[in-house]
Design goal:
With 578 residues, this protein is an alpha/beta fold. It is built from 20 helices and 12 strands. The chain has a 6-stranded mixed beta sheet with strand order 6-9-10-3-11-12, sandwiched between helices. A 4-stranded antiparallel beta sheet has the order 2-1-4-5, with helices on one face. The radius of gyration is 35 Å and the shape is elongated. The chain starts with a helix and ends with a helix.
C-alpha cells in the first residue's frame, strides 16, 4: 500500500490500467510528435518565405503557400490520430477501472460498505470517474503542448538562440506560483468530491423517505439540510474557479513580458546587424505557435490536481482489504446435516458495540429454533455470523462439528438459504430472480419452486408469465407476492440450513396466512432459524431462545418458557394481553 501511494496516483493509473492499451497511446503520441514538429515548422517556413521576399526570389510565390498548406494538413491529420487513439485507450481503461471497483465492492466486507451510503459510493463511479477522464485527457493534451513547445523552441534556436533563450527564461518564472496554486487545487478538489458524494447520498435518502417526510411535514428540514451542503459546495466550487483562473493572468502576463523582451532584444540586435527581419518574423511565428500550448499547460496543471483528488477516492475502494477471507487450504464443506453449535461466541462490531457475549447454544439437525428478544438483543447478529458476513471476535461456530472459519465461504453459503423481511428482487425476469437460488437450475425446477411457494398463480397471470421483467425493486408486486418469490428462490436453493428473518412482519394477516404454508414447505426437513417479533408465528418451534443484551436469557419450548414467568412470558403478555 505504501509503495502504491509513493508511486503517485497517475503513475499507478498508468501501470495498473492504462498501460494495457499502451499501443494505442504510443500511436497517438507518435502522431502528435509528428504534429508537433509540423507545428514548429511554421516558424522556419515563415523565415524562409520572408527571406525569399527579401532576396527577390520569384519562386517563393508558389513554394511558400505549398509549404504552409502541407504543414497545416499534416498537423490536422496527426491531431486526429492523437485524439482518437489516446481517448479510446482512456475510455477502455476507465471501463476496466469501473468494473474492478464494482467487483471490489460486491466482495467487500459489510463493515467496509456500511461506512458510506450506497448512493455516495456510486458517485465514485460517476463524478470521480468523470473528473479522472477529464484530467487524463488534459494530461494527453499537456503532452501535446510540451511536444509542440520543445519542437518549436528547437526550431527557434536555429533561427536566433539568444532571443529564444531569453523567451524561455521569462516563461520559467511561472513554475513557483503555478506549483503553489496546484497544491491548493488538490486540497479543494478533494473536499469538493467528498461533499458531492455526501450531497448525492442525502438527496437519495430524502427522496427515498419522501412519504414519511410529507406526512410529518419535514420538507423544511430536508431543504435546510440539503441547502447547507449546497452552500458548502458553492464555496468550494468558487474556490476551484478562483484558483484555476489565477493561472490565466500569470500566463498572460508572462506572454506579454516575453513579447516585450522579444521586441527589445530584436530591436537591439537589428540595430547592430546581428539578426534579420526574416529571423524576427520567424521568431514571432514561433512565439505564436508556443503561446497557446503554454497557456494550456496552466489549465492542464489545474486539471491534474483535481484528477489526483478523484483518483485518491477511487483507490480508497480498490485498496479495501477484506478481513473475512478463506484460510490457506480451506476445505469444502460437504452437504450438511444441519447441526449448529455456538461455543462461547463473542462479537463486537467495528464501531465498538458488543452484540454477543459468550454465547453457547446447540441446535440439532432438522430442528426449528426461534430467536426472540427486544431490539438490539443480538438476534440479527447471529444471522450475520452464521454465513460469515462477519467473523466472530472470539469463540467458534460449527456446522456438523466443523468450524465455519475452516471451510471456504462458497461451500459454507451453499448450505444456507435466507428469507428476510425485505424481499430483494433484482432487475431481470421473474425466472431469473427465482433462479438466483441455484445456479444452473432448469426451467421446470424454477416453476416447481414457484408452485411450492404458492407463487405460480399470480406469475402465470402476468402477460409474459415467468419471463415478465422486474424493475425498480419489484415495485409492481405486492409485499406478499415479493415474499413468495423470495421463498421460491429459497426452495430452489434446497439448502439444509434455513434463516427466516421476520419473513411475515411486513405483511397483512391474509398475506401472512397464505405464506405460512409456503414457509412450512420450505422448512420441512431443514434446520431452521427464525427471528420473529410476532410470537404467534413461532409457538410451534422446537426451541425458543430468548436473547437479552447479547446473551441467552432463556431457552425452551413455548409452554416451558411461559411457565418460567421470565422475559418470554412478559413479551407474550404484552402481545396477547394476559
Amino acid at each position: 500500500m505504501a509503495d502504491k501511494e509513493k508511486s503517485g496516483p497517475y503513475r499507478r493509473f498508468w501501470h495498473e490500467w492504462l498501460s494495457q492499451y499502451r499501443r494505442l497511446v504510443f500511436i497517438g503520441i507518435f502522431a502528435m510528435l509528428i504534429g508537433a514538429v509540423t507545428a514548429a515548422g511554421y516558424a522556419k517556413g515563415i523565415q524562409l518565405v520572408i527571406t525569399g521576399f527579401e532576396t527577390g526570389s520569384t519562386s517563393v510565390i508558389w513554394w511558400g503557400p505549398l509549404i504552409i498548406l502541407a504543414l497545416t494538413s499534416t498537423k490536422g491529420i496527426c491531431t486526429y490520430f492523437f485524439q482518437t487513439r489516446t481517448n479510446i485507450a482512456l475510455v477502455n481503461a476507465e471501463t476496466d477501472l469501473q468494473k474492478a471497483m464494482h467487483k471490489k465492492l460486491v466482495y467487500a466486507d459489510l463493515a467496509a460498505l456500511q461506512n458510506e451510503s450506497p448512493t455516495a459510493l456510486a458517485t465514485r463511479f460517476t463524478s470521480d470517474i468523470q473528473v479522472l477522464r477529464a484530467s487524463v485527457s488534459s494530461i494527453f493534451g499537456g503532452i501535446s503542448s510540451i511536444l509542440i513547445i520543445l519542437a518549436t523552441i528547437a526550431i527557434m534556436l536555429t533561427i536566433d538562440w539568444v532571443i529564444t533563450l531569453t523567451l524561455v527564461a521569462v516563461f520559467s518564472l511561472a513554475v513557483l506560483p503555478v506549483n503553489r496554486i496546484g497544491a491548493r487545487l488538490h486540497k479543494v478538489s478533494r473536499s469538493t468530491q467528498d461533499d458531492l458524494a455526501l450531497m448525492t447520498g442525502d438527496i437519495s435518502e430524502a427522496l427515498g423517505g419522501i412519504r414519511m417526510a410529507r406526512t410529518y411535514q419535514l420538507e423544511g428540514f430536508l431543504i435546510k439540510g440539503a441547502g447547507s451542503i449546497f452552500d458548502r459546495l458553492l464555496i468550494l466550487k468558487r474556490s476551484l474557479i478562483t484558483l484555476g483562473a489565477r493561472l490565466s493572468p500569470i500566463m498572460e502576463s508572462l506572454s506579454g513580458a516575453a513579447i516585450a523582451c522579444l521586441l527589445v532584444v530584436v530591436a537591439w540586435r537589428l540595430s547592430h546587424g546581428t539578426t534579420t527581419l526574416a529571423n524576427f518574423m520567424g521568431l514571432m511565428t514561433g512565439f505564436g505557435v508556443v503561446s497557446q500550448p503554454a497557456r494550456n499547460l496552466g489549465k492542464t496543471f489545474a486539471m491534474v490536481k483535481q484528477g489526483e483528488a478523484a483518483l485518491d477516492r477511487v483507490y480508497e475502494i480498490l485498496d479495501l482489504k477484506n478481513t473475512i477471507a478463506d484460510i490457506d487450504g480451506a476445505a469444502e464443506l460437504p452437504r450438511a446435516k444441519g447441526a449448529i453449535s455456538f461455543r462461547n461466541v463473542t462479537f463486537t462490531y467495528p464501531g465498538g458495540k458488543t452484540a454477543l457475549k459468550g454465547m453457547n447454544l446447540e441446535i440439532p439437525a432438522g430442528k426449528t429454533v426461534a430467536f426472540v428478544g427486544r431490539s438490539g438483543a443480538g438476534k440479527s447478529t447471529i444471522f450475520n455470523l452464521l454465513p460469515r458476513l462477519y467473523d466472530v471476535t472470539s469463540g467458534e461456530i460449527l456446522i456438523d462439528g466443523i468450524d465455519i472459519c475452516a471451510v471456504s465461504q462458497v461451500s459454507l453459503r451453499r448450505q444456507i438459504a435466507l428469507v428476510g423481511q425485505d424481499s430483494v428482487l433484482l432487475s431481470g425476469s421473474i425466472a431469473q430472480n427465482i433462479g438466483f437460488g441455484r445456479e444452473g437450475a432448469t426451467r421446470d425446477e424454477i416453476i416447481s419452486a414457484a408452485k411450492a411457494a404458492s407463487a405460480d398463480g399470480f406469475i402465470t397471470e402476468l402477460p409474459d408469465s415467468y419471463d415478465s421483467l422486474i424493475s425498480s425493486a419489484g415495485a409492481t408486486f405486492s409485499g406478499g407476492e415479493k415474499q413468495r418469490l423470495s421463498i421460491a428462490r429459497a426452495i430452489l436453493r434446497d439448502a439444509p440450513i434455513l434463516l427466516l428473518d421476520e419473513p411475515t412482519s411486513a405483511l397483512d394477516a391474509e398475506s401472512e396466512a397464505a405464506i405460512r404454508g409456503a414457509l412450512a414447505t420450505l422448512s420441512d426437513g431443514r434446520t431452521t432459524l427464525i427471528i420473529a417479533h410476532r410470537l404467534a408465528t413461532i409457538m410451534d418451534a422446537d426451541m425458543i431462545v430468548v436473547m437479552d443484551q447479547g446473551q441467552i436469557a432463556e431457552a425452551g419450548t413455548h409452554s416451558e418458557l411461559l411457565a418460567n414467568v421470565g422475559i418470554y412470558a412478559e413479551l407474550y403478555r404484552l402481545q396477547f394481553g394476559g
